[in-house]
Amino acid sequence: MVVALVPGDAGGIAITPDGRKVYVANHYYGKISVIDAATNAVIKDYGTSTRPGGITLTPDAAFAYVANLEPTNIQILDTTLDEIVDYIDASRRTGVIVTELCATAFTPDGSRAYVTDHFGGGVLLVDANQRKALSKISLIDAAHIYAADTCGIAMAPDGRLAYVTNHTNSAVAVIDTQTNAVVQQITVDAAPYNIAIACPGGCPSATPTTTFTVTPTPTATPTATPTATPGRCYGDCDHDGVVTVDELIIGVRIALLGTPVAPCASLDSDHDGTITVDELVRAVNAALASCRGEPAAARRL
Fold this sequence. Notes:
The protein folds into 2 domains: 10-187, 7 Propeller (Methylamine Dehydrogenase, Chain H), CATH 2.130.10; 245-299, no CATH class.
């Protein structure tokens, strides 16, 4: 039963451990709202000149990390002052190339943050003490697409594993935080976007606040490969027989940013590792024809 409706265009959300305040990233309005949980009233609402995605509290709840889709940086909000006090640059000039930051998870001691790179097929590793981007953990290799369209991330209570959702490939990549390498891929039934970890009896107090909703069970082994499935159309990224607007947008982003084609390999008809205007046009035609209008040669990718 809905008891209150707070205006806004909510993206990420985080709640302080005492339950008094709620922080909301308003994606399309480019602002962050602070809500009094007792009254459900917005007590502070300010613009950020960004497109905020996920918002996550540090383990001690002293700060909130706002992962921005555009520009590629992380804003740090002081939860006592309710002000942005710093930011972490993740642009190309840092040498760590990411596209759009989506969500954050912390190790239990708060020393490191893992931030998903939405369309870049990776996770940004951040030194939270120095507030500095360290490196990008690639979730794409020659043998497997562990995660290409990534957003949700959750940290195990002991901090040893991080779980990252892959919307396009219907999978969850598991990262060993000691080696920062992918150690497993979990295949799931749907296209996961967010994720949370359940703790029987309650999670330790140091566990990062997350807002995700899928709890995977690690039973499968890596299966996905960065090749298109036969019988599908140009631009059918998830191989469900339909080319959607979201898939066309993925293609445009890959073409503009020059990022790996793995999030939608079916667009790359000549397998040269790039997506051209002609290939985007074919995908649009496939969308308009509901895949039925593609010639046989086009379906044999």
